[in-house]
Structure formats: C-alpha cells, structure tokens
Design a protein that fits this description.
Blueprint: H1 5-15, E1 32-34, H2 46-59, H3 74-87, E2 91-95, H4 98-109, E3 115-119, H5 124-132, E4 136-140, H6 145-154, E5 159-164, H7 176-186, E6 189-193, H8 208-211, E7 229-234, E8 244-248, H9 250-259, H10 261-264, H11 271-286, H12 289-307, E9 319-323, H13 327-339, E10 342-347, E11 358-362, H14 369-381
Parallel strand pairs: 1-10, 3-4, 3-5, 5-6, 6-7
Antiparallel strand pairs: 2-8, 7-8, 9-11, 10-11
The structure holds 4'-deoxy-4'-aminopyridoxal-5'-phosphate.
Cofactor: pyridoxal 5'-phosphate
Pathway: Cofactor biosynthesis; biotin biosynthesis
Keywords: Biotin biosynthesis, Pyridoxal phosphate, Transferase
Length: 384
C-alpha cells in the first residue's frame, strides 16, 4: 500500500496522546471564547461583516486571478495604502494569508549566499520561510540579541534576522530595539512577524515596531521611513478577517511584486476578506481604545490566574499561556473547560518545541468583567 507508513505514524500519535481532530464551530456557539485570535472582537462586528458583504456584492466571491493579472481591486490598493500609513511604513503588499506573506518576505530577501538568523521560538510559517529560502539559516536561542550578534559575526554576505514580535504560544515579546540595534551594527535586515502585535501593541494598535519606535511617519528627527525593517502581519487576528501583508520600504515591496513566488503565483486575496480587513482597520483608527483594552484584559487575566496559584507567563500582548502538567492533562483540562462552557486553546508537542503543554488563552478587548470572572473560575475549578 503506497501510504501504508502513515498508519504507523497514526498509531504512534495515538500512543503519545497527540491525535488532532477537527470539530466545526457552531455559528451561535454558547461557549465563552478565550481560544480565538479575534483579539479586538471585530470578526463579527456589523461594520466588518458589512465590509465583507459589500465587497463580495461589488467584486464577486473570489479575486478571479493572481494579483498581477485580474486579482487586484481598488480595495486591495486602499488596504495597502491605509495599512502602511497606520503602521508607519512607506508601503505594503497584501497576500492571501499571513503564512504566504512570511514565505514571501524571507525567500525574497534571503538569496543564495546570504545568512538568515532565526529565533528558536519562531512561528512555523517563519521556519518554513527559512527552509524555502536559498540563504543558510542559523537558529539562535530565544529572544537573545547576543546570540544574534554572534551569528552575524560569522556571516560575510547579506544577512537577515527573522523573529516574531510577539511569540504565538507564550505571548512574550521579542527584544525588538536590541535586535534592530544589532542589525544596524552589521548592516543586516530585520524581518519581524507582527501577527500578534498589530491591533494590540503601540499607540492605538499600530503594532510592536511602532511601539518600539522603529516605525512611524517621517518627522524632523527621522526624515525617512524605516529602511532596513520589514514587517509581516496577518489580517486574521485583530482585524477579524483573513489574509496577510508585508510592510516596508517601497523598493522592498516592488521587489516582492517581482520576485516573491507566493505573491506572483497565488490568487489575490478574496474581495470579501479585503473589504472586511479595510472596515476593521478604519474602525480601529476610530476606536483606538480597543487596543489598550485588550492589553488590560490580558494583564487582569494573568494577575487573577497567578493569584489562584496557576503558572502563567506574564503577557506582553493579548496571549496568556498557562502551563499544564502533561499533554494528556492539557487535553483533559481544555475538554473540561469546554464542558463548563469555556473555549480555550490547547498546545502540545510538536506545536511547542520545548515539549511543555499549555493552555493558550486570548484576552479579547470586548470581554466583560463578568465573563472574565467566569473564565478564571472555570480554569481554576477544572485544573488537573
Ligand atoms: N505568524 C504567526 C505568528 C501566526 O500566529 C500565524 C497564524 N497562526 C501566522 C503567521 C499565519 O497567519 P495566517 O493565519 O494569516 O496565515
């Protein structure tokens, strides 16, 4: 049998308690949601769903072709201009997913003969970008600018440092200012994935690079847009839609249009997703307090879990990670939460390379005090 070997893998997964299954989410789920990445509660906001519906009515159910052929609408143009201006970069390019944006940024900016320095805690899409790129990857310790410096000392040609801004499972932040400083010293480029920073960190949710003073409209002190930093984002978390984008200098964006295979050979982002993201971005500009509220809810959730004796990582954005004693007990814990009406994320190896299973909770800006009370109570009562 051609694929006989997969049965042995399935049995091994079963023995280790690591089988994953899909379960459709009902449209009107009664569960309290601390599992999704809808950090600002915008995915079902009427302005966002209407943005999607209006775009689909006007432009159709799909983009109809790649961005360079028929897949670019004026909505894509508007989203790119407004996203770049909001986050403080010269230009932006929208992709069909954050995953595709990461593959594009790394492969197009790390040619043959280049060095890629990648944080050990990076998201799978950054890791895959490194694997696909022609450059040579050196993985360095998590959030360790000194390790990055040592790696850069070994390189001779072009170099690029790759990191998440906020790490997706533990919710801790990368030392962005220090990384930018080391990159400057070595003339290296910095590519950061702000999937979990956009909409949560920085003034009004402008993202982690903006919060670190690495992005922003040119002004007297910094007459140019950032030249050596490229940021990737997803439209599927704080913006409640789907898709991704790369932000950076216009010459880098032009390069991606001409060289990034996940841009050139992929169908453009669907109009509905583009319209939803644009509506969410405009809403966030009008209601900047949503970002600070997500951070407050995360801090409050962490404080209360810790006070009840649970081991939780101090959140730098909207993700709160709670340690579980084993993969089996993590699964049991998440299932018991579900039975008690609470949806939480459950992360086990191999999604977590350090082998430590966790519950992953997301603090939404629109959680009420009563909902927070309930969530903390359920997590405490169901602890293994
Ligand atoms: N980067 C990070 C850090 C992520 O957490 C995710 C989503 N899980 C992605 C990229 C991929 O984004 P998308 O879901 O838009 O493909």
């Amino acid at each position: 049998m051609a694929f006989g070997w997969i049965d042995e893998q399935a049995r091994a997964r079963g023995r280790a308690g690591l089988v994953r299954t899909l379960r459709p989410r009902p449209a009107d789920s009664p569960l309290l949601d601390l599992a999704s990445n809808d950090y600002l509660g915008l995915a079902r906001h009427p302005e966002v769903t209407e943005g999607a519906a209006e775009a689909a009515r006007r432009w159709g159910g799909g983009a109809t072709g790649s961005r360079l052929v028929t897949g670019t609408t004026e909505l894509h143009d508007e989203l790119e201009r407004e996203l770049a201006a909001f986050c403080g970069f010269e230009a932006a390019l929208v992709f069909s997913s954050g995953y595709a944006a990461n593959l594009a940024a790394i492969t197009a900016l790390a040619p043959h003969g280049s060095l890629i320095v990648s944080d050990a805690g990076n998201h799978a899409s950054l890791i895959d970008g490194c694997r696909l790129a022609r450059g040579t990857t050196q993985v360095v310790g998590h959030a360790d600018p000194e390790a990055v410096r040592k790696a850069l000392e070994t390189g001779g040609g072009p170099a690029v440092v790759v990191s998440d801004t906020v790490f997706s499972v533990d919710g801790d932040a990368a030392p962005l200012s220090e990384l930018a400083q080391v990159c400057r010293e070595f003339g290296a480029g910095l590519v950061v994935d702000d999937a979990h920073g956009l909409g949560v960190l920085g003034d009004g949710g402008r993202g982690a690079p903006y919060a670190a003073g690495l992005a922003g409209a040119p002004h007297a002190e910094y007459p140019e847009y950032p030249e050596d930093i490229v940021v990737t984002v997803t439209l599927s978390k704080s913006l409640g839609s789907q898709g991704g984008a790369v932000l950076g200098p216009a010459r880098v964006i032009d390069h991606l249009v001409n060289a990034a295979r996940t841009f050139i050979f992929d169908t453009g982002l669907a109009p509905a997703a583009t319209g939803a993201a644009l509506a969410a971005l405009r809403l966030l500009r009008r209601e900047p307090e949503r970002a600070a509220r997500a951070r407050e809810v995360a801090a409050e959730l962490h404080a209360r879990l810790t006070a009840s004796g649970l081991e939780a990582v101090r959140p730098d954005a909207a993700v709160v990670s709670v340690r579980a004693p084993s993969p089996e007990r993590a699964v049991r814990w998440a299932a018991d939460c579900r039975t008690a009406g609470l949806a939480v994320g459950c992360f086990r190896p191999p999604s977590v390379p350090d082998g430590i299973s966790r519950l992953r909770l997301t603090a939404r800006a629109d959680l009420t005090g009563g909902q927070l009370d309930r969530a903390v109570r359920v997590i405490g009562e169901t602890r293994p």
